[in-house]
Design a protein that fits this description.
Layout lengths: L42 E5 L5 E8 L4 E7 L2 E7 L5 E8 L3 E2 L3 H8 L11 E10 L12 E10 L2 E4 L2 E8 L3 E11 L16 E12 L1
Amino acid sequence: MATESGTGSQTDGSAAEGGAAEGGGASPEAAIPRDLVKGGAAGSWELDPAGTSVAFTSKSIWGLVTVHGRFGAVHGSGRVAEDGTAAGDLVIGTASVDTGNTRRDDHLRSGAILDAEAHPEIVYRVQGAGAPESGGRGGGVGVVRIEGVLTVHGVGKPLPLEARILESGPDAVTLTADVAVDRGEFGVGWNPLGMAPTATAVTVTARFLRR
């Protein structure tokens, strides 16, 4: 998501903001393994902003500069049914983007890039979760496959994830996932003279607390 020259600082996201989710669709036939959470995963879960971060890395100046950034405002919730099916939302405040460079951040928030005024939220809507498919990256114990839709700039696209389990207790679960996002697919194609590639590497670490 880089736009202008200069490197930024990478930090973890925290504070929460409210908002409604965009996107959606039919839930796939996938279920969370019962042993994912000690005592069972069924029930309602709330995202813990203090244990959650959304960080990204992208290139600028024809790949010569690496920009690190984060979104500081994240909130969400989810629910796991008795049969293991899951649904929920992770909501990011678009205007909370922070690369450590005020000029660049203002540009990212502007109508030329993320257009935070018109699209105040970036939403990942979980539609299902379960054991990873055979041969999946990092498949096996400690990994859960998540099916969902990412909505950026008002455009929703399916985005499956394979999340690693960092913490699994009766009242807290922490997952982390690395994913490549091409902002051009979401209508965020600003790239004058090819200097700002649209590929962005995103790392999400999400901690959920049982309600």
